[in-house]
Amino acid sequence: MLKLLGCLFIFAASSGMAYSLVLGLYSQIRQTELLLRLVTAVEGEVAYSRSPLPELLSKLAGHLPEPYQELLTEASRQMEDNREADIPALWTESCVRFQKQFSLPQEAYEVLLSIGEVFSYTSLESSLQLLQLGKKRLDGAMQRLDAEFSGKRKLYCCLCYMAGFSCIILLL
CB–CB of 92/113 below 8 Å? Predict the structure, then answer.
């Protein structure tokens, strides 16, 4: 009876591990989609709104979920407090501070860091071109993540269940 109970617990643990790994993949895809929304929103605000930067970031923070909302709020607060500071450096500092909350692929994280450069350009065309480049890079990252998702999901599930079954066999 105890062996049967142990087998059930091992099977539950391997199922939980597979679920956790697949949830991490979903999180990566979701956060990359949200970053694409952020880049598109920044592009629209820069092109049409022309509001001051701290206001722009505060407005965008109201429309995006965590962790982007917290990042934008913090960056806005820092930019209001340090009006004479280098804006790309403040943005990079804020992104590095919140890096652990993001589960972004490296290419998408680089796009997030490059958003700070958009705020330093005086030319509207330069800023919009940089944002367009970021959107293209994010589209490519999204396509790559989508293509890899099903294969990784199957691999994670197979490995977790095989490890669980191997432990069950050793237990019996």
Answer: yes
What the block records as the tokens of 46 is 């820069």
59 close to 45: Cβ distance less than 8 angstroms: yes
Distance CA 38, CA 68 (A): 8
As a dihedral over the C-alpha atoms of residue 33, residue 129, residue 49, residue 121, rounded to 10 degrees, the angle is 120
Confidence (pTM) = 0.79
Residue with tokens 């944002």: 131
Tokens 């290419």, located at residue? 107
Tell the residue number behind the tokens 């701290």, with chain if given.
54
130-166 pLDDT, tens per residue? Answer: 888 888 988 888 888 888 887 888 888 888 889 888 8
How would you label 30-50 residue by residue, b for 16+ Cβ within 10 Å and e otherwise?
ebbebbbbbbebbbebbeeee
Give pLDDT tens digits for 25-53. 888 888 888 888 888 888 888 778 777 77
